[in-house]
Amino acid sequence: MDLLFFIILLLLSTNESFENNIDVHNSVNYQSLDITSLFGYSVKIYSDSISPPSLLIGAPRSEGSPFVPRTGNVFSCSVSNSSFCIPLNFTKLNAPNERRQDTAEVGEYIAERKDNMWLGVSIETNLNGHIITCGHRYVNTGNGDNLYMHGQCHFLSGLNSSSDILQPCKSCNLYAYYQCLAGLGLNIDSDGLAPLIGTPGAKQFTGEVFYGRNFESCSSQFSPENFDPNENGEDALFGFSITRGRLINRNYEDIISSMPRYNYLYGGIAIFRNESGLISNTLIISGEHFGAYFGHSLITSDIDGDGIDEIIVGLPNYSSNLLSEVGLVQIFFYSSVLSGFTNITLHHPDPIDFARFGYSLANLGDINKVGGAEFAIGAPFGSHSGIVYIFTWSSIHSFPILYQKVDSNSLSSVRNISSFGSSISPGLDVDGNNYEDILIGAPQSSNAILMHTFPVIYLDSLFSFNTEHIYTRNSDTCDISLNGIGLEPVCFQLIFSLSFFGKSTPKNANVSLDILLDKILFQRSYRFRVYFVRENEKVNILRIPNFIIGQGEPKIIISELVYVESNPIDLFTPVEFHASVFESNLNNSSDYFKDVKILGDTSFSKTLEIRNVNCGADNICESDLVITGNISFSQDRLRTVDYQYFIVNEVKHVVLNFSISNKKEEALSPIFSLHLPPALYFNRILDQEFRIHNETTFLNDSSLILIDLAPSLVRDEFIFITIILSSSKSAYQFDNIIIRFSVKSINYENPSLLFDNSGVFIVPVKRSAILQLQAFLQTDQVYYNKSNPFDISSIHSSTLQSIGNEVTHSYSLNNLKSSDVSRIRINFHWPLGNISSNMFLLYLVSLQYDSTSAVVRCDEKYFNYLNLSSHDHPINAKESIRSTNTYRLFKRDTSPLSNYIDCDSHPDYYVVFSCHVFNLSASQGIKFTVKSRVFEPTLIALSPIPVDWQISTKVSMDIVEAGIDFISTIPVNKKIFLVTYISPQDISLTYFVLQWYHIIPIILSVSIPFVLFIVIFIALYVCGFFKIKKRGRIDMHTATDEEFEEETTNLNVISNPD
């Protein structure tokens, strides 16, 4: 029998939902018209044995009489009418301040000051109807010359009786007790004979606690002087908060007083032991947090239900490392083993700055009737307007847990409330349902809020069956008809009964509930293995409305046959039977709850395991699963391609076909496993429905696919499955695609896994790349002396950067296929020298490239011309420039090698260096340029004259990617000629030798026009066509670069190549 206890909160006279059983949506608001009266500064629920309960609400700043303003007062408010509040009858409160005659001086003086006395700053009551309240700012004047803020308390024996005035400091030494502040701390005993009145201002704020009601002499007080020889209690404010509790002995109440400023502002509490009715020794508990005001609030409560009270202490000024005055609460438990106290700490559930969690505390009593007592903690500035947190003891955690949060912003009865939770009354029943209700003050907005607590019942449920397990065959069967088809499924009996019990609840309750079969599998896959039959159809949910259950008497709610699917989808997961209770309709009988609402679902469950008996005489299924499969590839729309490789970025899908069969006894719940590499991920299964689990195995960085094939696979039965996988670019990391698969089954009696068959597909990874390299050259102008372009000796520049022609080599590299290429090497063959008698070198000057992804890097060791080498012969460029016999294409005194110098036929005359292109994506390209210069350059022809020599460069390319095999590439081995003949139709970069016979036509072409020009000029001058004007001085004018270029356009014959 399963006994599952769930709290169901039956909320009366409302259609709203509540948090637990405190009604925050139908709270009752009491408010003073005087917003400055601090109405709600102290609150108590009052009850005696005669009159109905009422609410006592202190307003210490309320108006008094016309004679004495702002005395403060305590109001008695009706529980049933929030607008009816009347002040209590306090002796002499409304009379004028007392006047006395000074016999020595023969004069009259004012003996007291009741204005601003803050009556109602504290209120205490007991169940016998006694009331005590105080005004800590009441002033005695002595002989009229001084003001002594002794404070004053009023004791009432009943709600309608007059008060007795209590002034504990009046008979004491005026100097030591000039500012007692009596009544800030206050407590009353059960018979009202020995109230405790705290005077935290006595003796220069060391503080004392007065005991009893007779203060004719300054005696019967507790003082730190009795237990603090080290004077740590100086300025301690002893008596700020006072309470009683059975801390050690259940038969006697101990007295506890707080000292918020004790021990240099760490605070503390003093415990006065009551042994055999006599106050004996004192225990001190010191605070641990500086300036936290340890003991600002103080109560005792038996929160864990063991018969011994715990001490609950508020530290509202506690600040954490991050928040200021967020507040804290500590709970102290007495340990008889340790003969001392241990403590636990409650932090603010919603911490914010200045929330003051722990500002007020209250013992609410057992509001949920489960044993122990709930307690409330006020945070009057939490959420800015105030929150009250209610905690209950958890026996599972041995720690208080949050039971309910009452946020002032959620109250329906009041708006614009402030400091909600500054005061909280101990719980007391006001509506007669034997459940403690709660009164909470919000003095800054002059409010007090009454909240009712609703009864609680506990449900006791029982699921019972006529079988211990569910069998799928060879068990009891039943004849049924489903849609006209007769069946004989396995069946068994289900019985569910329900009852309730609770305190102060009726004998019967009206509930509605759902019965759900196979909840786990239904939630997971919306399929089920067991079912009810209703109207010739399978159902797995039954709704039972408005069922009457009794208190303490189990009532059978359902007794039904449950049927088992002949071939259930899952034989491992237990079948869960689930009952869920929800709110009922109204019932007009007086024995039933009316307008019943249930907070939250109340659920009950029972599980049964599935057993199979078709595994031979030994009941152990020994299966023999066989799996075969094939793999194919698809480019698009699952049209397979006959590839022998996995081609990256061309294969979009991988198609796996498997055939699974069983050769022996029944295989129970066969599971197909598929391990996929990162290059592939699961897409779907074609044309079949299987239960699929997909998870990542981090150890081998692969994905594991688990597929539940069937509930069972009998002998000679086949299952065919087609799985579609999708590919990703991560396949670049591997040389092979490896797919592992297996099929296994499990036996109930022997639950070890049986790996009946497994296999693996290993497919080589190939890349498809076709690389296209294009190249062309472009030369810049030669550098020369602009002022004297015919001065051959001035061609050479004095700086290295401006020596010779600059040649721009432009390249375009494109990847025309589907696979990315991570590294491509391009080899450049450049000539070492020219065909003149002087040596020159081509060398790399700079590199530029344009691409969004690919990167170009060249071998740096070949960038500098000083490091160029010709095979095994190193070259020092500076020396070779001056040399006439080292590494020339032909020598001065010998015949040329040939008219055409080719890099393949004369490799010694060339240097080879490489550039690398990284990460060239599929269908992408990159453009880059390299620049070279010519050492010891020759002049450029001024007219198209055939050139004797032609020199070529070559560029080759290969793929450099370790461990990667490409299906196809186009090798690049192109020759680019640097020298051709010059003609108006075909102008290209030209290097040639300026010999003596080349200079003759140049001299003639220049001198003849010049001589003719001089002759014509002289003739015209002689004939008087123009005259030279003489001036006083000669202007020297230097042509600008633009003017010079305009005049020398005919000299610049180098242009861009085709």
From TrEMBL:
- What are the Integrin alpha third immunoglobulin-like domain coordinates in residue numbering? 772-941
Q: Name one GO biological process term.
A: integrin-mediated signaling pathway
Q: One GO cellular component term, please give it.
A: integrin complex
Localization per record: Membrane
Give the main location: membrane
Residues annotated as transmembrane: 996-1026
Name this protein carries in UniProt: Integrin alpha
Q: Where are the FG-GAP repeats?
A: 25-86, 280-341, 343-400, 404-468
Which stretch is the leader sequence? Answer: 1-17
What topology does it adopt in the membrane? Single-pass type I membrane protein
Family statement drawn from the similarity comment of this UniProt entry: Belongs to the integrin alpha chain family.
Task: State the InterPro entries in the record.
Answer: FG-GAP, Int_alpha_beta-p, Integrin_alpha, Integrin_alpha_Ig-like_2, Integrin_alpha_Ig-like_3, Integrin_alpha_N, Integrin_dom_sf
Q: Which UniProt keywords apply?
A: Cell adhesion, Glycoprotein, Integrin, Membrane, Receptor, Repeat, Signal, Transmembrane, Transmembrane helix
Could you tell me one molecular function GO term of this UniProt entry? integrin binding
Native species: Oopsacas minuta
Tell me where in this chain the Integrin alpha second immunoglobulin-like domain is found: 615-751
Domain of life the protein comes from: Eukaryota
Listed PROSITE patterns: FG_GAP
